[in-house]
Each structure stands twice: as structure tokens, then as C-alpha cells.
């Protein structure tokens, strides 16, 4: 688990917002680019903290949720008990990183977007960038994804994540309305 499996998730909050962060200038990858709200690599603890029935999808979801908690508040324990569920959208392989697999997903988080703030040791949120996008309906979410995909400031994981999300919103609308608890 020494950074061998990458994970990235975008966050949908209970007030119907899609929230992103920007990688800081000190980041190993994607410096100063918009990034998924939780982005990093699986840790050994993600595996050992699972129940006896260990599945790859559970490992990936747990790692995505841990990264979100680490990056979305300076006091990581603030989000410790926040309810969330994660759906894996797909994966890709980073050619420039030796074919490292990166899983991407979306997480529904039972917290208001105003309660999230970047952990400046991990990410940043400059006031000059828009990082919260409307997503209280599938149409709003789709429009926000389309707007974001036009940006030149997207990290590779965020671009792949949004591209997969756009595709699945076209093909499986009802499933995502139910998962995110939003209207059409």
C-alpha cells in the first residue's frame, strides 16, 4: 500500500453542492490544479480497518472517504463521524506514473458545504477560484460538470472523474438521483 493504488472522489454535500479543492504548490502531483475533494493513495490501515470480509471495492471506498476527511478540515476529527457513502465510477492508469491504477468515485456526504474547509497541509482553496458548484438536481449537477470540464485548471484525476460522472449521468440518471438524493 505504499502509494501503489491511487484514489480520488468528488463530494456531493447534503445541501446539494459539488465541492472541490485545489492541490497546493507543495503537492507531489497536480500542483496548483483543481482536484477531487479526496485524492491520494490507499494506506495499509484502509485494508486492516476493514471487517473480515475484505473486498477491493470496500478498500477503495474507505480510502476515498479517509482522504476526504483528511483534506476537508484542518481538524480531521471534525468529520470523523459524518455519514457518507461512496460509489466507484471507474479507474484509469497513469501512464506518466508507471501505469499506477487510480480509482475515481463520488461520495454523498451528510454535511453542509459551509462546514468544509481545506486542510492547508494537504490542499488549498484560494478565493480567486470557484470550488463549490450547484448540484441539487441532476440537471444542475450535469451543468456544473460540463462547466468544470471546460476549465484548463483540472488535475488528471479530476478530469477523468468528471468525464466518467458526465457519462454515467447520461446513461443512469435514475440511479444517481437516488444515490445523491436529488431530483431530476
What does this structure look like?
- The structure is a single chain.
- With 184 residues, the chain is an alpha+beta fold.
- The protein has one domain (6-180): Alpha-Beta Complex (Nucleoside Triphosphate Pyrophosphohydrolase).
- It is 31% helix and 25% strand.
- It is built from five helices and nine strands.
- The longest helix is centred in the middle third of the chain and has 16 residues, at 56-71.
- The mean pLDDT is 90.
Summarize the structure.
The chain has 184 residues and is of the alpha+beta class.
Average the pLDDT over all residues and give the rounded result.
Answer: 90
The share of residues in extended strands comes to 25-35%
For the record, the CATH class is Alpha Beta
- H-E string: EEEEEHHEEEEHHH
Could you name the ranges where pLDDT drops below 50 across 5 or more consecutive residues? Answer: none
What is the overall silhouette?
A: globular
Q: Give the number of DSSP strands.
A: 9
For this structure, the CATH topology is Nucleoside Triphosphate Pyrophosphohydrolase
- The CATH architecture comes to Alpha-Beta Complex
CATH superfamily: Nucleoside Triphosphate Pyrophosphohydrolase
Radius of gyration: 15 Å
**What is the number of helical segments per DSSP (H or I, 4+ residues)?**
5
Derived from helix and strand composition plus strand pairing, the structural class reads alpha+beta
Distance N terminus to C terminus? 39 Å
The major pleated sheet works out as: 6 strands, mixed
Helix content: 25-40%
Query: How many domains make up the coordinates?
Result: 1
Amino acid at each position: 500500500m505504499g502509494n501503489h493504488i491511487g484514489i480520488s472522489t468528488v463530494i456531493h454535500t447534503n445541501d446539494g453542492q459539488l465541492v472541490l479543492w485545489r492541490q497546493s504548490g507543495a503537492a507531489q502531483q497536480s500542483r496548483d490544479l483543481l482536484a477531487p475533494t479526496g485524492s491520494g493513495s490507499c494506506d495499509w490501515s484502509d485494508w486492516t480497518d476493514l471487517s473480515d470480509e475484505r473486498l477491493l471495492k470496500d478498500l477503495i471506498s474507505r480510502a476515498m472517504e479517509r482522504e476526504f476527511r483528511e483534506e476537508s478540515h484542518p481538524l480531521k476529527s471534525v468529520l470523523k463521524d459524518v455519514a457518507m457513502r461512496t460509489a466507484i465510477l471507474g479507474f484509469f492508469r497513469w501512464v506518466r506514473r508507471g501505469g499506477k491504477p487510480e480509482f475515481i468515485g463520488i461520495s454523498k456526504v451528510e454535511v453542509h458545504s459551509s462546514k468544509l474547509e481545506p486542510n492547508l497541509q494537504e490542499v488549498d482553496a484560494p478565493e480567486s477560484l470557484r470550488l463549490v458548484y450547484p448540484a441539487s438536481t441532476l440537471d444542475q449537477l450535469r451543468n456544473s460538470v460540463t462547466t468544470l470540464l471546460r476549465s484548463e485548471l483540472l488535475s488528471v484525476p479530476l478530469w477523468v472523474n468528471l468525464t466518467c460522472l458526465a457519462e454515467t449521468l447520461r446513461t443512469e440518471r435514475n440511479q444517481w438521483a437516488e444515490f445523491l438524493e436529488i431530483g431530476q
